[in-house]
Amino acid sequence: MQAHYPLDASAQIVNNSSMGVLLGVIGWLIQCAGKNTLLTAPILFILALIMVLGIFFLAHQKHGYANLLVLGVFILVLLCYVVYLKSFYGEALVLALAPILCVGIRHLVLENKILLFTLSAVVIIYAKQQMIFVVPVILMLLLRNMWLYGVSNSRLWVSLLCIISVCAMLLGAHPENKAPNQYNRYFNGVGWSLLQSSNWPAQRFEERHPYFYQHQQQLKTLFPATLPHYNYLGTSYLPTASTLLDAARSPEGTEAQKKQAQDLFDQLVAQGRPDVYLLTLVQHPVILWQLVKNTYRTVVRSNYAVDYTRSGLHLTPAVAQVLVNAQTQLARVFGWIFVVTLLLALLYRRSLFSAAIVVWMLLAPLAVVAGDGYFEFEKHMTAFFVFLPCALMAVILIASKSSPVSPSENGLPQG
To answer: What tens digit of pLDDT does each residue of 160-181 get?
Structure first.
């Protein structure tokens, strides 16, 4: 990230995420003040201030056992991903607002207060497209309160409407990702699962991607010829499909060559359409088992140190070295931290509601692979890792058993 960016007539800020909206508002205010430069230091300060305030209020809540676990996990998250605060990535907002959402969850569960919960949840969900996966956790919390406090509670319905509205906005926010996601879903996700990429001598996507292409000729002989377009299995949208698209749009090729490239591109991308993808899994059950096995092995064997986030915080050399060492060690085990802390939280608070949240969160890695294959797997898992403290808070807290209305007034059965 640069220290500043010019806000001239050619500068465009796309408001299809929470970060885009934030930058758009800041840019508009700067231009209203007669300036034309967006400084990044104030953005870092704002995000850090929001996060610190959230940590402060979370630490001063009652029922300390739950808070200690949540705070402890958040500190681990912060150590590993603090550099995201100095970026325009959506994860920066999720990281900054995670403590606030934890406090909001407490207010919702224990006091049926929805304002802080709703505001922070809306911003976090709209921060990244894959955060739509955590919406069921948010909805489960709201629906439980409707059970306890009555389905006629207007505040809960307002919160529910806000969550649903932002989901609708998010679903149509990134049409440019459709083709890459569909291609990677099948060719990268299914291909690498069949090859059991978690066993490769590589721990990150930045290492696995070149490893596959370096050994492509021998690896592709392992794919069953009965699978659709098996010659392309294991490849990624970048560079394979994007090269086809470039050929289809090249001014140097003949019309026949362009049409051939475009037709092949369309056929390959269509293979990752949700209905076609699911049909392939149904017709070849072995794929599903290999996909599940390789996904969770990848979760716990991956190194989540993403190179392009390892920069920028101005610290003394000694402190910087300590931070780098901590990040390096944590990044190697964060998959285990994600799985183990969720299971420990379930053991601590054994209930059907808690089990539903834990199981759903443990499905997040499968959602990543079913969404974009293993392409940038570690980066795509980051948002779920940063959301982990919020999920733990939802699992651990016990909803108040006293409610202002009786179950019969809810129109729900007693007992």
So the answer is: 999 999 999 988 777 888 999 9
Q: How far apart (Å, rounded) are the C-alpha atoms in residues 128 and 89?
A: 9
Judge contact between 235 and 185, C-beta under 8 A.
Answer: no
pTM of the model: 0.89
Reduced to 3 states, what is the DSSP secondary structure of residue 112? coil
Residue pair 306/379 in contact by the 8 Å Cβ criterion: yes
Confidence (pLDDT) at 158? 96
Structure-derived torsion over alpha carbons of residues 304, 310, 316, 320, reported in degrees to the nearest 10: 20
Pairing of β 4-6 and β 37-39: antiparallel
- Domain assignments of the chain as residue spans, ordered by start: 4-173, 177-301
Would you put residue 134 in left (φ > 0), alpha (ψ -120 to 50) or beta? alpha
- In 3D space, the residue among 222, 166, 229 whose CA is nearest the CA of residue 17 turns out to be 166
Task: For residue 40, give the DSSP letter.
Answer: S
pLDDT by residue (tens digit) across 353-391?
999 999 999 999 999 999 999 999 999 999 999 999 999
Condensed to tens digits (0 to 9), the pLDDT of residues 298-356 reads: 999 999 987 655 545 556 777 777 777 888 889 999 999 999 999 999 998 889 999 99
Q: State how far the Cα of 402 lies from the Cα of 165, in Å rounded to an integer.
A: 31
Tokens of 276: 């076609």
